[in-house]
Amino acid sequence: MKLSDLLKTIQPVRIIGSTDVEITGINIDSRLIEAGHLFMAMRGTQTDGHAYIPAAIGKGAVAVLCEELPEKPEAGIAYIQVKDSEDAVGKVATVFYGDPTSKMELVGVTGTNGKTTIATLLYNTFRYFGYKVGLISTVCNYIDDRPVPTEHTTPDPITLNRLLGEMADSGCKYAFMEVSSHSIAQKRISGLKFAGGIFTNLTRDHLDYHKTVENYLKAKKEFFDDMPKSAFSLTNIDDKNGLVMTQNTRSKVYTYSLRSLSDFKGKVLESHFEGMLLDFNNHELAVHFIGKFNASNLLAVFGAAVLLGKKEEDVLVALSTLRPVAGRFDAVRSPKGFTAIVDYAHTPDALVNVLNAIHGVLTRDHLDYHKTVENYLKAKKEFFDDMPKSAF
Fold it and tell me: What whole-number distance in Å separates Cα of residue 195 and Cα of residue 234?
């Protein structure tokens, strides 16, 4: 691809050299540069890519994108100076990999908790419907049924666009991805076209990077601020920040809630360690999930699937077949009657949700009265012990 074509979605401050040069690859890591590549220098949190421009040229780079031009530009090398290299890298990568998100419906999920569960369940739901689907998540990336190892919740812009390009080439019609606050702040998703965005909740997290809760909230909000008019934004109004997230978006706003009137209204009717009976928009469904936080996650999946054009009844059937994501409130029952819960709770709010879910099930099973599962079981068993021979 010609360098001039790669630059069509950005506005360079200055260009030195010819843009009529063939680019065979792009990279932000000078160690991966090969002959004919474009090296894009980014200011990272640990190192400044501008320091590696000479090394990239030494390995065969024919063009350099940067914020600061070298004092002595090398002859025969094209230099593209930009105001914001983080923003430019994503846009250039999108063009280089064939604008993959224009060929599929991409939905991003952001928030402190629930991103992995919602993105993965949407992936499983649309595969249930028979589509080829992509997934970009903390646990693993998938190109339909092919796993691709992951290192970050949201990959760097080049890895991300390459992955999305492979999804598009494989015929994926939908893709679902976790969108971390880091990726928004660092503009890793720059250039991508989203069909929709989902907000789960916001609690104190990543303050080592964002420094304040306000900065953390602002990073999340930028995702919805940049959402196109053609997209939808589905927000959780059970969280106090739910409507804050979407107050400046151009997209169509929809809401979901377990407590308030909303576009997608849910309620937990029954809860046991085997699952829950839920009511979504006046439809009952049984699911293999536990806890109000999972009811909220499933409600987000329900809403997003409907907004992507699926009938409510069909989505409910799909949800009833789903299983918890590995490490997300997995209930393991032992032959001796013990129940173990495995969960990847890594924030105070997530841990409270897990403990409340366990307590909620125990309370519903009357352990406040019976004290132990054994006593509860014994009380139930006495009913059958006393059954007469003539009965069934």
Answer: 11
Q: Give me 16's structure tokens.
A: 């030195």
The mean pLDDT values, 10 residues at a time, for the chain of 392 residues are 96 97 97 97 87 97 97 95 96 97 97 93 98 94 93 84 97 96 90 97 62 79 96 97 95 97 96 89 95 95 98 97 72 62 60 60 52 64 83 84
**Which residues, including other chains, have CB under 8 Å from residue 56's CB and lie 6 or more apart?**
30, 33, 37, 39, 64
Q: What is the DSSP letter of 238?
A: T
Angle CA(137)–CA(138)–CA(140) in degrees, nearest 5? Answer: 65
The pTM score is 0.82
Query: Crossing angle of helices 157-169/85-96, nearest 10°?
Result: 20
Q: Name the token pair of 114.
A: 């629930």
Specify the amino acid at residue 151. E
Can you list the alpha helix ranges (DSSP code H) found in 10-105?
53-58, 85-96
Dihedrals φ, ψ of 294, to 5°? -75, -35
In the chain, DSSP finds a helix count (H) and a strand count (E) of 14, 18
CA 3, CA 389: separation in Å to the nearest integer? 87
Nearest alpha-carbon partner for 295 in 170, 156, 200, 223: 200
CA end-to-end distance (rounded Å), the chain: 77
pLDDT, tens digit, 9 for 90 and up, residues 348-380: 655 665 666 555 555 545 555 555 656 656 766
Place of tokens 């919805």: 224
Are 250 and 228 in contact, with CB atoms under 8 Å apart? yes
Phi and psi, residue 342, nearest 5°:
-110, 120
Among 211, 209, 183, CA closest to 197: 183
CA atoms within 13 A on the CB side of 374: 2
